[in-house]
Design goal:
Largest sheet: 10 strands, mixed
Mean pLDDT: 87
Order of helices and strands: HHHHEHHEEHEEHEHHEHEHHEHE
Helix content: 40-55%
Strand content: 15-25%
Low-confidence stretches: none
Length: about 450
Amino acid sequence: MRELITKPVEQVEKFGVNGGVILAILGIVMVGIVVHAFDINTNAALRFAVAAAPIWLPIITFLLFFEFWMYFVRKEFDLNQGRVVFEVTLPKDVYKSPEAMELVLVQLHQTAAPDNHVQTYWDGKHPPTTSLELVSHGGEVKFYISVPKKKFKNIMEAQLYAQYPGIEVKELEVDYTAEIPWDPDKYAYFSLHFNLKKADAYPLRTYVEYGLHTMPKEEEKVDPITSMVDALANLGPNEWYWVQILIDANREVTFKEGALRKQADWKEAAREEIAKIVDAARKRSGVEEGGNVMQQLTDVERDTIKAIERSLGKNAFNVAIRGMYIATQEAFLPGERIGQLITGWRGYDDLNRNAIGVRWRTDFDWNWWQDPSGKRRMAHKKRELAEYKKRIYLSQNSTDGRKVMTTEELATIFHFPGRVLLTPTVGRIESTRSEAPTNLPV
């Protein structure tokens, strides 16, 4: 039933129509049809609605209040936690596979489960948001990680040094985003939202498929992150590109955690997808219920099921990805740069399973009627800049919600590469730091 509604809405949204507006119009039309078909007396219906207001009005009021209250208390909780931004400088050589970053992410999988309802509905306690960021300024590429300060500052710093000996982790006194103010006279802005194209259950092509977990020689490595870093390194002076991957722990949510109805974690839907694949093979081959259908699966179906089952054994995060291209008015080259930055994600695509694609952008397909004055476009860009700096994310259409990725997928799209990355503009520590010998005279 849900697909019967969402699929047509997704199609009309491609023409720049707001899905919420379409649903509202359809609702009004349906009411009109019912009134006409059953010859309902509208005056009597209106009187009944007014008389029943003591029933339906408190319900609607409560639902609206609940939504805004939870947003308010959670925002207060986040502000009280504070936020720190780490700049990570890589050593000359990184002798680690992306599995090391996966271990770091496992430590961040904190559901922050409240002990009681007071912590949920008064304190606003909820899973923290971590931001993994890949940034280029004039082709100089840097890695940043932003975490809540109170609880996760020390955890993040300790885990990074534990998994990547030799790196340098520096807390920024001033957030690097402060370098760019909202000044449309001087700067041009363009923002994109990326995410999975298919259901959460279908994983991307990860470092395991690339064989990086076996630690091949540097000259034999094929690391998909190099495509994105090389695209960032191609920027010229007075150009910036910010990649922001916002993550928070995926979990089952009940009333105790702040939901009016139970919300299952992603694993239930993943198992349903496996059942769909098996059921499709059964129908295709004519195998009866209870018969051995596994032999009828194609190689692609077997690989897909194997990948999903491997994912079920991993921790998972709700993920939102934003990319912002900013440049001075004279240096702004959207036609050339945006295409390069979109194709930088292609290394993670598996056409038989899933891929990362653009879900929304601060432009319109039909500018002449969607935004003839350009005011909506500028409002989008101003909001996106502010939300990037605050490390928050609001979906803009029916396909732009948060998706679920496992630690394996996240470690593939964000990790610290070794010498396989030949880009000279990636900052590295030229000398290796080590502890002083224990036998030095005092």
